[in-house]
Amino acid sequence: MTTATLAITSATPSLPEVWKAELSLQLGQGETLLSAVETDLDSKLRFQRGLIVVTDQRLLSKSSESSEWQSWYFKQGLQMRHHDHAGVGHLELVDANNLLAHWRFTLGQNLLIMRLMDAFNEQLQVRLTGRPVEKPEQNVCPSCKAILEADQEECPVCTKVIHTPPSTWTLFRLWRFARPYKISLIIGFTLMLLGTAAHMIPRYLTKPLTDEVLIPYQSGKVVETSLVALYIGGLLGAAILAWLLSWGKTYILALVSERIGADLRTATYEHLLKLSLEYFGSKRTGDLMSRIGSESDRICVYLSLHLLDFATDVLMFLMTAAFLLQINVKLALVTLLPLPLIAWAIHMVRDRLRTGFEKIDRVWGEVTNVLADTIPGVRVVKAFAQEKREATRFREANKHNLAVNDKLNKVWSLFSPIVSFLTDIGILVVWAFGIWQVAHAEITVGELVAAIAFISNFYGRIDSMSRIVSVTQKSASAAKRIFDILDHVSSVPEPKNPVKITEVKGQIELREVGFRYGNRAVNRNVSLNIQPGEMIGLVGHSGSGKSTLVNLICRFYDVAEGAILLDGVDIRSFAVADYRSHIGLVLQEPFLFFGTIADNIAYGKPHATREEIVAAARAAHAHEFILRLPQGYDSMVGERGQGLSGGERQRISIARALLIDPRILIMDEATASVDSETEKEIQKALDNLVQGRTTIAIAHRLSTLHKADRLVVLDRGEIVEVGNHDDLMTKQGAYFKLYEAQARNAAALAVVGE
């Protein structure tokens, strides 16, 4: 291997050997390789390998389809430009006058491309000025080498993929939900303490019953009836007292645990509603439903049953140990012999159970996800005759769930009998040692019988306490999954000191707005000033960033760059709910809730009168078809609007927006999925809706925006044209091309229709 090849290999260890061999032939004498990146797309966006190289003297490039290398030496005016759109990255090399080269790549290469650009810019400055670039100290993730912000302590890349196993200590975080009920908890645990002591009385009375009643009676001695009655009465009284105390403690603590579970569900759901759309975009509906439903229910059962039993077992264990020490110290010490082995077994199995139950929870989420996908989409499933396919999906998910449970049950099925075996051996050892002590007159028969009664209870409690390991780890896993939601901070945070909105004029200003979905830039440098009462139409190809811009204005997401202002105030300064209450939203696919027509119209204003609801429906041109329904405004709407046509659902959503009388109206493809006749009806309703409001409308059918004051044309996330229809048609730019293309398509469809 040559010296040049060795240098290349050390600088770019992940580069394929073919490229390394070619590079060794291209580098000149004394030329040093600084950075090299493999591109994976060609100019026609086909997957094709290429290479970009930065050395200390120049930039080199080659594609697999060409045998020629291209080369550009560092000079004044040379620069690299980078942008990405719709999942494709673009890298351009330009000088003062020309575009010299253009490379395309998938965003998986984006981080490497950025590093190559850094190397290029640093070496360019060195060549032009003779001075190296002063680089600030960077905070780098030790695992994935991603560059972090100065104030970042955790790597956002790693924290998304690393699953930390649940810890039993997670359960202690439930105290925040238990704190409001601490008086009831104190009463409940006091009753538990007294009840446990009452359960000890019959075992303690075993000693005098044996020594003072049974053995004398067997020996022929006279035993006083009053003494027998006293002991029997003591046993009966202790049983009644223990029952009453146990009932009281169980009832009180069960009530408390149910309220803790209810508060936990409510807090989780309320926090979930506060999270941004970005969070929901990365989660499955079935998984979230499982967390709030079954996981919180599992915690509730743990608190009301298993934790209560565990606390009782611990108290019984400690009291039994105290009584054993009081009866005979040696016998008590022999009783403790199996404990180290049992503790070791619990320790060995705990970690396996902990990680296993979290995996079971995730796999169960897969089962519920299939249900959450299929049941709402059952119409599509049946329309495409995919019942067998969905049944297979569910069967596979259920099979996976079964396999994970079987694997964990192997561990648990071995652990439980081992603990039982060790406790049985412990009792045998105690019997043997106790008989030896009786034979040597160290204890009486009554003391041995009482000790055996306590020891049986002692080992029984150890066995019961060991079994709590399983349910504790299940509950810890459930608590972790719930706290994963509660700990998640919304990417659309509430301001610390929100500005109160008194009166909304409706002026919206976008100042150099930029936004990214992960690594993909969607909007860049968007600046626009919308006057109060003005209607703006957003047009452009699919993927040009129209809907994202609307989502930013609604503050479903926060801008990554720049700012959005309402009446001169940054919208991030307002309370989210206060700000959104002044926005009316009409979507392409209107969502209706299960309930009456009136309830759906009044969703944004629950206390609206029937007169207000009817007035909104009239303005939305929905009153007539509502009256034709069997119960009129009290007719039930199926889930997601089942039973109504698309146009009827859309007009109800328009009535819903009209009822709250918003100052800002946003319409996202409001007439895209209806026929021409229905579109006319909806358009009449929209004409009533937009009057006097600042309106932002998105439409693929450019003809529906003829009443817009201005049209804003977006391309690749940037504004390329602004103006009314006539002005933009005169310019014959991007809007002209869109309009002409739609006109040709409409003409072609008309010919086909004939």
From TrEMBL:
<dbReference type="InterPro" id="IPR011527">
    <property type="entry name" value="ABC1_TM_dom"/>
</dbReference>
<feature type="transmembrane region" description="Helical">
    <location>
        <begin position="183"/>
        <end position="205"/>
    </location>
</feature>
<keyword id="KW-0472">Membrane</keyword>
<keyword id="KW-0812">Transmembrane</keyword>
<dbReference type="Pfam" id="PF00005">
    <property type="entry name" value="ABC_tran"/>
</dbReference>
<dbReference type="GO" id="GO:0016887">
    <property type="term" value="F:ATP hydrolysis activity"/>
</dbReference>
<protein>
    <submittedName>
        <fullName>ABC transporter ATP-binding protein</fullName>
    </submittedName>
</protein>
<keyword id="KW-0547">Nucleotide-binding</keyword>
<keyword id="KW-0067">ATP-binding</keyword>
<feature type="transmembrane region" description="Helical">
    <location>
        <begin position="411"/>
        <end position="433"/>
    </location>
</feature>
<dbReference type="GO" id="GO:0005886">
    <property type="term" value="C:plasma membrane"/>
</dbReference>
<keyword id="KW-0813">Transport</keyword>
<feature type="transmembrane region" description="Helical">
    <location>
        <begin position="299"/>
        <end position="325"/>
    </location>
</feature>
<feature type="domain" description="ABC transporter">
    <location>
        <begin position="508"/>
        <end position="741"/>
    </location>
</feature>
<dbReference type="InterPro" id="IPR017871">
    <property type="entry name" value="ABC_transporter-like_CS"/>
</dbReference>
<dbReference type="GO" id="GO:0005524">
    <property type="term" value="F:ATP binding"/>
</dbReference>
<keyword id="KW-1003">Cell membrane</keyword>
<dbReference type="Pfam" id="PF00664">
    <property type="entry name" value="ABC_membrane"/>
</dbReference>
<dbReference type="InterPro" id="IPR003593">
    <property type="entry name" value="AAA+_ATPase"/>
</dbReference>
<dbReference type="GO" id="GO:0015421">
    <property type="term" value="F:ABC-type oligopeptide transporter activity"/>
</dbReference>
<dbReference type="InterPro" id="IPR036640">
    <property type="entry name" value="ABC1_TM_sf"/>
</dbReference>
<feature type="transmembrane region" description="Helical">
    <location>
        <begin position="225"/>
        <end position="245"/>
    </location>
</feature>
<keyword id="KW-1133">Transmembrane helix</keyword>
<dbReference type="InterPro" id="IPR039421">
    <property type="entry name" value="Type_1_exporter"/>
</dbReference>
<dbReference type="InterPro" id="IPR027417">
    <property type="entry name" value="P-loop_NTPase"/>
</dbReference>
<dbReference type="InterPro" id="IPR003439">
    <property type="entry name" value="ABC_transporter-like_ATP-bd"/>
</dbReference>
<feature type="transmembrane region" description="Helical">
    <location>
        <begin position="439"/>
        <end position="459"/>
    </location>
</feature>
<feature type="transmembrane region" description="Helical">
    <location>
        <begin position="331"/>
        <end position="349"/>
    </location>
</feature>
<feature type="domain" description="ABC transmembrane type-1">
    <location>
        <begin position="186"/>
        <end position="474"/>
    </location>
</feature>
